[in-house]
Amino acid sequence: MSDLSHTDDRLTNETVELLQQLIRHQCVNTGEAESGEEIRNSDLLEGFLEGPGIDLEHFDCLPGRRSMVARIAGTDPTAPSLCLMGHTDVVPVSPEGWSRDPFGGELLDGEVWGRGAVDMLNLTSSMAVAFRHLANSGFRPKGDLVFFGVADEEAGGTYGAKWMAEKHWDAMAADYVLTEFGGLPTETPEGKKITLAAGEKGLGWRRLKVKGTPGHGSMPFGADNAVLKAAEVIRRLGEYKPNARLTEMWQHQVSTLDLEADVKDALLNPTSVWEAISKLDSPALARHLHACSHTTFSPNVVHGGVKTNVIPDEVEIDVDIRTAPGDSDQVDNHLREALGDLFDEIEVKAIHDDPATFSSTDTPMWHL
Prior knowledge:
The protein has helices at 8-24, 39-49, 121-136, 161-167, 169-172, 226-239, 248-255, 261-267, 273-278, 283-293, 331-339, 364-367, and strands at 55-62, 65-72, 82-87, 107-108, 111-112, 145-150, 176-178, 185-188, 191-194, 199-200, 202-211, 215-216, 296-304, 310-311, 314-323, 346-354, 357-358. It is an alpha+beta fold and 368 residues long. The strands form 6 sheets. It has a 5-stranded mixed beta sheet with strand order 1-2-6-3-7, with helices on both faces. Helix 1 (8-24) crosses helix 3.
């Protein structure tokens, strides 16, 4: 590997500048097929990486939905390959909630502001800069080194990783992949450590359609108001406590935490883990540990009503459900348990399903 000690400032500046450009391209993924326009960031990355020692390709699933692959060929065809994978799309914004232009990419007090600055255009730009630096330095790995700038991560990958795996597997396949998540600073008995993630929860996005009876808003008494019914659906989802899924990886994670022995014991017990998490001093750690140990339900989008003086007859609720390993086929059973008698009064539509995954930690890559 080449010595980066004399080039840190230059590489930092390159990373910041590339991140700013990626943000400013506004590759907003609403979940609709025609959104995203990741071609803008894909072309930017291709232009940034173009040069000696790098092979470049790009692939269009749909007009504007472009992914790109860069490769530094290895010297040994039998050696394992490594892929650095970063997505190029971002989620939508509510501009009124921002104190700065969400697509301005401003550099303020050493921080870059903008949608995607932490998910994950920062990593995408860092990987691209490191990749180009290695190529320019004449570095030749034993196995292929791949950079994969992928579209449509924010809506499940239908027009990105999934399509690439189905149609162009050979172009992006690698023995090992580094991508988001992980990176959570965690206090351990040996000091602060940075977490690595070797698994990913599944997706079970659902759209719940709540029905009511229309009427005039001036006479609400006894009315079958879909908004009130939807509010109760949301309340029950918020209070639902599914059983914990405490895997071997969970046990290892708990063992590394800088917590008292009795707290660790409680975190390892399926009957006490919820209460133990709720009593942690750090809200950030509590959110992280809860997500790692449970299937989660977050109602995030609500649509309903047509006019202030009309009792609504229909409300739609989009629920972001993230399934723990072993729970991917239990989404609708969980909803039935959470909603009780209301479950039979609503329509449930599956928006997106992907199972939870684990990668082996018994590998040379992990032990590095």
